[in-house]
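Proteins fold. Shown next:

***
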Amino acid sequence: MKPYIIGIAGGSGSGKSTFAKRIKEAFENEVSLISCDNYYLPHDELPLEERAHLNYDAPEALEFDLMVRHLEGLKNGQAALCPVYDFTKHTRSDKVTEILPRPIILIDGILIFHDPDLRNCMDLKIYVETDADERILRRAKRDMQERGRDLDSVIEQYLTTVKPMHNTYVNPTKVYADIILNGGKNEQAFTLVKTQIERILKTDV
């Protein structure tokens, strides 16, 4: 069977990655998960200080072509060697993660519905919509705890790129969604998506 590909989009801090991980955990080896964050383009030619101030919330920051190639390979039963992005250094690390071709492939990211070729790879598109105040608080907590940022840098990045790019590029892509969820911790939505996946897996046995 060809993998059933589910895209999960939404603003930074919306809970889309949490939702995707819950689905992954619910089905274990039936699901592979790809994070769009790992496909940020490397800029090793720039010093760290300059890399830290690049706009990471615009479409040109991402290598969509590589994502598409990886999804097409997975559909044909080929494993993908996914890059690993190092957010503390603002570039790709020298590591890769092997993504296996499993019955369900999840891909999550803020801009995955922006690129038409990537969008066309997906069988189901889910957009997670969350209040802006909640999103910035989650982002600040994550960036400070997991990515070595200080509060001033989080605020600067949010005001200069995250918020305007969300309004310009991310939020408009929800028109492509098949399902719009109210928050990433919506239990009823999780149950509905989980049930749909169970149905797909039974159908393709």
User: Anything to note?
Assistant: The domain at 4-203 is CATH 3.40.50.300 (Rossmann fold). The radius of gyration is 17 Å. Residues 32 and 187 are 21 Å apart (CA to CA). The chain has a mean pLDDT of 90.
